[in-house]
Amino acid sequence: MDQGSTLKIISIDDDKIQHILVKKRMLQADSSVQLFPFDEPQNALDWLQENTADLILMDLNFPGLSGWDLLQEIGKISKIPVVVLTGNISPYELEKMKDFPQAIRLFEKPISTEQIADILNYLRS
């Protein structure tokens, strides 16, 4: 990813407030970022069937669906790096992340501006 290109980032979270926070902080870090928010995991999976992005930010908990199951489904259709967000990081999540090399980071919500800058630097390196 070169310095001048626009990053396309997918945000998958059933909490609309998280989408607002992510968008605000992303745009503070880089005003050229294109953010594609999805409230429903299936809608994001459908979108990924025909589109691509540079990064996926996703929640770990959804009604009726494990974030780990979603991560597995994403891996079947795309190799886009994923940042997993959760309200509480436990030793279980830290261990489970090892099963998903596509998941490059695990952060506690809400994601900080510094964490976003770290992600963007990673994508551009």
UniProtKB/TrEMBL annotation:
<feature type="domain" description="Response regulatory">
    <location>
        <begin position="8"/>
        <end position="124"/>
    </location>
</feature>
<dbReference type="InterPro" id="IPR050595">
    <property type="entry name" value="Bact_response_regulator"/>
</dbReference>
<dbReference type="InterPro" id="IPR011006">
    <property type="entry name" value="CheY-like_superfamily"/>
</dbReference>
<dbReference type="InterPro" id="IPR001789">
    <property type="entry name" value="Sig_transdc_resp-reg_receiver"/>
</dbReference>
<protein>
    <submittedName>
        <fullName>Response regulator</fullName>
    </submittedName>
</protein>
<keyword id="KW-0597">Phosphoprotein</keyword>
<dbReference type="Pfam" id="PF00072">
    <property type="entry name" value="Response_reg"/>
</dbReference>
<feature type="modified residue" description="4-aspartylphosphate">
    <location>
        <position position="59"/>
    </location>
</feature>
